[in-house]
Specification:
The chain has 672 residues and is mainly alpha-helical. 75% of the residues lie in helices and 0% in strands.
């Protein structure tokens, strides 16, 4: 904020230090901008009042300033201000990145007749976003009133602005109608090419509205064509976008499709905002809409040439296209009643049985004395094929849940932000998620541990040698200790791989749907020569339902197996600890442990701690990505926490044990 007074600012403007609109507004905003040492809105409000009073004391300066602003605004171009800033580009990521980079290195000259460039010149400080967004509407009115822009003498400015907004509406409506021909939309809903869609209807209605509004501007006594029908069509367009989003879940999504949907949504919102600015029925509402548009444009302008924001936006689009599939899959990992709860336990127990033998195979591979590379290859294959077998048998590895359930929770949070769900619903979902993960962990551990003990005992009885000698058993126990053996750190690494595996699974599920892989397999020329129609149908159906899960499970095993090798190459203490494998290794170590069995109880607690770290690291990462992908957040955390604690007080048993049956209304809500 400038230290000079309002009078000195007016003197500088009167002396011609600001020859055009851009320089005039820039000097005013530079004077209003709060200092870094005191970045408060109150300071801006005080300066606005000082400027307004100074202009009242010097009416001649005020009139000349108003005339300058009016003259410049009458000739300025508005179109790109409303049709470019804040709307996704129609270029690809690579081209947009290249152009932004070049713009940063060699900025184009300022076009002083274009309001888009004038906005960038005036609000040139990146921190302008903060105070512009926080400045109340009344302060803006006071500033415009002080400059004479709200007087009847400034009707030319208002008329010119209205005409430019009408032209922008026409262009935006044309873009919306043209989006209907995008191949991505036709793939999802071919019927839009056979009938008059809401997008085309909106274009026609806005054309009529613009024509009627211009006639009304020319003759205020003429009938006014209101925007009620246009707003109905806007809502129908949004409903069509929702249809596209839902079909993208089953038919597959892509970055380009997600980009199209986001751009179309932004365009519809911009049209709604411009209609609000034109509504003549409520002056206060029209002014409020104008200020809100200014806020949005200033925020978008600050990010216009930002490479970081471009990268973040595209990563969000990519994450959304992947996590959308995980959200749907997550429904199957959440138990709501006693039958599903017991089924989850049985499924976890089955996985625990197989993991006990996977742990034994890994021990035998490492006992073969192979080289580091070859040893890693066989360990990766053991893990990857073992997890694939677990999935094929419909068993559940407990820590595979969080990446799926976190996406489902994020979807529910997105609904809450839109007013569809409630904190009570989210609290119920959190309890269901925690309970489901707990029972799956118990299923894994309660079977993997005793099976490992039994197999270890039989191994020693028949082969007359333990699975692990005393030194190896001690080493396995040491690896389970939280800090000395770095078990919690290694468990966090496994949690990261669980999260990555969830993304891989979502990517391949989405790819399967997008490429219509089942349809390709049903009609594949080679398969038709060797397989019957029924066999191809079953094979295609299996791939349709399991493609992503098979890929995610296999790559999860590869990631687990390769971690220690990466540590070897980098000379870092990298390894993984997984709750199910930790319990199996504890069982095998127990068969070689010479001490009292009670001495092993702390290690069982360590295994459960490993499980907690596995779950919460993967859950936190997956939830973070899912929330960022949807552009939302956990709002009203205090209300959610109160609802969660209230549910525990009301039904404490449900924290670990679900009800026998869920009421029909609640159960149906959970599947939405």
């Amino acid at each position: 904020m400038n230290e000079r007074t309002a009078e000195s600012l007016l003197s500088a403007l009167e002396a011609g230090d600001a020859p055009d609109l851009a320089d005039t507004l820039r000097q005013i905003i530079d004077w209003l901008r709060p200092p870094p040492s005191r970045p408060t809105v109150a300071a801006v409000v005080t300066r606005i009042e000082q400027l307004a009073l100074a202009l009242e004391d010097r009416p001649s300066v005020r009139d000349r300033l108003r005339e300058r602003l009016e003259s410049e605004l009458e000739s300025a171009r508005h179109l790109t201000l409303y049709t470019e800033i804040g709307l996704y580009s129609r270029k690809g990521f690579v081209r947009e990145f290249r152009e932004r980079l070049y713009e940063r290195l060699n900025p184009r000259p300022l076009d002083r007749s274009n309001l888009r460039d004038i906005l960038a010149c005036v609000f040139h400080d990146p921190k302008d976003v903060q105070w512009v967004a926080a400045l109340p509407n009344d302060a803006w009115w006071r500033l415009l009133e002080g400059l004479g822009c709200l007087s009847g003498e400034s009707s030319k400015i208002a008329r010119r602005a209205s005409e430019e907004i009408l032209y922008s509406l026409e262009m935006l409506a044309v873009w919306v109608a043209a989006e209907e021909l995008e191949p991505e939309f036709l793939r999802l809903d071919p019927s839009i090419a056979k009938r008059h869609s809401a997008f085309v209807a909106l274009h026609r209605e806005l054309a009529d509205y613009v024509e009627g509004y211009r006639a009304w501007l020319a003759d205020p006594e003429a009938d006014f064509h209101d925007d009620r029908h246009a707003r109905v069509l806007l809502e129908q367009c949004r409903e069509q976008i929702d249809v596209f989003r839902k079909r993208a879940v089953t038919d597959g999504s892509s970055i380009s499709l997600t980009h199209l949907l986001e751009r179309l949504t932004q365009t519809l919102n911009r049209i709604a905002g411009l209609l609000d600015m034109l509504d003549p029925s409520d002056t206060d509402a029209r002014r409020a809409a104008s200020v809100q548009m200014l806020r949005e444009l200033v925020i978008a302008n600050a990010r216009r040439n930002s490479l970081r924001s471009l990268w973040q936006e595209n990563m969000r689009l990519l994450a959304r296209s992947i996590t959308q599939q995980a959200s749907e899959t997550g429904e199957h990992y959440i138990t709501t009643n006693r039958a599903e709860y017991l089924q989850m336990f049985r499924s976890g127990a089955g996985a625990g049985l197989i993991i006990a033998f996977m742990a034994l195979i890994k021990i035998e591979i490492e006992a073969m004395g192979l080289g580091p590379g070859l040893n890693t290859f066989w360990v990766c294959l053991n893990y990857g094929l073992g997890f694939v077998l677990i999935h094929i048998l419909n068993f559940t590895v407990a820590t595979k849940q969080p990446a799926m359930t976190a996406a489902r929770l994020a979807a529910a949070i997105e609904e809450t932000e839109k007013g569809i769900a409630s904190p009570d619903r989210l609290a119920d979902l959190l309890i269901q998620v925690g309970r489901s993960q707990l029972v799956a962990v118990l299923g894994n551990v309660s079977v993997a541990l005793p099976v490992a003990v039994g197999v270890g005992w039989l191994y020693g009885a028949f082969l007359e040698a333990p699975v692990l000698d005393a030194a190896q058993a001690q080493y396995q126990l040491h690896k389970l200790t939280p800090f000395a053996g770095l078990a919690l750190f290694h468990a966090a690494i496994a949690g990261v791989w669980l999260f990555v595996a969830g993304l891989i699974s979502g990517f391949f599920d989405n790819r399967c749907a997008y490429m219509d892989l089942p349809g390709r397999l049903r009609g594949h020329p080679l398969l038709t020569r060797f397989l019957s129609g029924d066999t191809r149908e079953r094979f295609a159906g299996f791939i349709d339902h399991n493609y992503g899960a098979l890929a995610g499970n296999f790559f999860f095993g590869v990631l687990l197996g390769i971690t220690a090798y990466l540590g070897y190459l980098l000379s870092l203490p990298l390894d993984i600890q997984h709750v199910a494998f930790g319990s199996a290794n504890l069982g095998y170590a127990a068969t070689s442990h010479a001490g009292h069995a009670a001495a092993l109880l702390p290690f069982l607690v360590f295994v459960l701690l490993i499980g907690a770290v596995n779950l919460w690291v993967s859950f936190a990462l997956a939830l973070y990505v899912a929330l960022r992908a949807r552009g939302t957040r956990i709002g009203a955390v205090d209300r959610l926490l109160r609802a969660y604690l209230a549910r525990i007080r009301e039904r404490p048993r449900e924290l670990v044990l679900p009800p026998a049956q869920v009421p029909e209304e609640e159960g149906s809500d959970g599947n939405n």
